[in-house]
Known about the structure:
Elements: H1 3-21, H2 29-36, H3 64-79, H4 85-97, E1 100-103, E2 108-111, H5 118-127, H6 152-157, H7 162-173, H8 179-195, H9 202-212, H10 215-227, H11 234-245, H12 280-291, H13 295-304, H14 309-324, H15 331-341, H16 345-373
Antiparallel strand pairs: 1-2
Helix pairs in contact: 1-14, 1-16, 3-4, 3-16, 7-8, 8-9, 8-14, 9-10, 10-11, 10-12, 11-12, 12-13, 12-14, 13-14
Amino acid sequence: MEYIEKLKGALYGTAIGDAMGAPVEGWSAARILERFGGHDFATFIPPTHEGDPARGKGAGRITDDTLMTEVLIEAYGEAKGHLDAYGYKVYILPAVKDRARWIPERQRSTALWERLWFPEKYPWMRMVPANAEPRTAGIGNMVNCGVAMWMMPVGAVNAGAPHAAYQEAVLLGSAHNESFAVEAGAVMAAAAAEAMRVCATLDSVLEVAASLARDGTRGAISAAIGAAADTDSLARFIAKTRAAVAPYDQRTEHCADDAPLKPTGLSDLGRPSRVCAIEELPVALAALRYGGGDAVKTLRAAVCYGRDCDSIAGMAMALFGGLYGIDALPAGLCTGVEAANRRDFSALATSFHGAIEAILASDAEMFDRHRASIGAGR
């Protein structure tokens, strides 16, 4: 399989998963199964909100998960090099705060800043008004999945080199958040790097994620993957996966599903931890394991899990698309997600591929200089 086919698969997969999960984000699994248990997942889940059905979530419209993925791809295109916390400030902040783009949920062109949740605005507040050093800018943010959900491009730039992807995601993510939020982003990037390796397998992607993860994230990933059996019913998969992840989830005692975080009194909710993990990445990996190479089964598992299911499905399908390529994704969903969002994801992937080639060429020159500087290869 050509690398560009994997790259396209990862990008389309991100958008498809995000758009499919968006209208039921925050719902319980029981509620989703009752309402959409019979949905064929060959078409997008329709809007579930009151009001104008042409706006808001549903009908294939992407959310901030995909929008931030686009921003990161554009940042690599401008930098034509690897990114770190300083690159975040130079390339990502202006794209988020000042650059207008079509926001499908709003049905208008505006700065992404207007769409983002407050933790995703935090880096701008830290690095611009507060003049924080970029490598420390993420300190104090609410620890959540807001880094992991858009780290696929870091894996793409470091395809075949999971450890390098992990390290780059740590450097980049430190401008956005801290603790197990950055850890999840690093593991997601590493898993994507492995998925886009030419000879990657489902088992190798899961092994990379489990072996590189640290602290509570490692425990949550191992538990979730271990709980996922492709022979289980969907309901049993959901119940087993939730039970596996719950001990690592700070929100377990605070909300039944993905409701807004409302701690009462003293609480560690949303704060750094060595023993906790975000829920979304372990569940995405479990859905990938449960799907066993079947796009619809993977997507259905990620979405029907509920809670933050647009991020879960976006990450699961990014890894699926990177592993199996664009042709393994339902063609109708690929064309549908472009039409719903006024996007040409194929063109974006092709442009990104060019930037990756330039980065790899620069890396090769640097490695040659390194070898020459120590007299290697004589």
